Design the sequence.
């Protein structure tokens, strides 16, 4: 029996403030110890959804690429198919999570030291692959569509995330799904002239 899904309503301090409950905020901030402590106190927090966005702790962790917390939540059997208010699952965010602004700054700074810059990019790419693999193994719906009709494959193509596209296709992602703009993932790759991705999808079709 899966843990109860509950909603946390936190006070809003400003119009733009995120009203995450404490566990969602901890998952977003990569505070592993706090996530662990809160779940030990109350297992119902596992699938809590904040009242503003509907994000769960798992979605929050995936937004930030916090793999250790994602792994912990999955071992606790967090529901990978819960959707937020944009109808997105954790997978929609995982495939979009590649490099943060800070990562790009570090890469630019370290670019003169080519090996270090290269290793940083490889490390971040591997982390993203691992994140997506964890979710796929946990049974996330690879063809779930959000409020715009987009699947994870649509977003992976849009983000030129070549590392995870083969993983999605291997997990039976449907390249023929059209979003609300009438575009398939292949259409997006073609429009953005991502020829390698276009070839990947054509080969799998």
Sequence:
């Amino acid at each position: 029996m899966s843990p109860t899904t509950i909603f946390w309503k936190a006070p809003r301090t400003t119009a733009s403030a995120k009203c995450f409950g404490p566990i969602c905020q901890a998952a977003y901030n990569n505070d592993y110890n706090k996530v662990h402590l809160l779940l030990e106190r109350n297992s119902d927090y596992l699938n809590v959804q904040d009242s503003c966005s509907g994000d769960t702790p798992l979605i929050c962790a995936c937004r930030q690429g916090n793999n250790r917390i994602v792994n912990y939540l999955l071992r606790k059997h967090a529901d990978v198919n819960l959707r937020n208010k944009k109808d997105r699952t954790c997978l929609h965010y995982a495939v979009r999570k590649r490099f943060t602004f800070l990562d790009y700054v570090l890469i630019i700074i370290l670019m003169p030291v080519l090996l270090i810059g290269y290793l940083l990019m490889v490390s971040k790419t591997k982390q993203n692959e691992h994140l997506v693999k964890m979710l796929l193994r946990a049974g996330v719906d690879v063809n779930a569509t959000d409020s715009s009709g987009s699947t994870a494959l649509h977003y992976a193509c849009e983000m030129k995330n070549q590392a995870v596209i083969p993983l999605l296709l291997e997990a039976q992602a449907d390249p023929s799904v059209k979003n609300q703009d009438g575009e398939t993932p292949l259409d997006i790759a073609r429009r953005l002239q991502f020829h390698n991705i276009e070839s990947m999808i054509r080969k799998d079709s």
Notes: The first helix runs from residue 22 to 28.
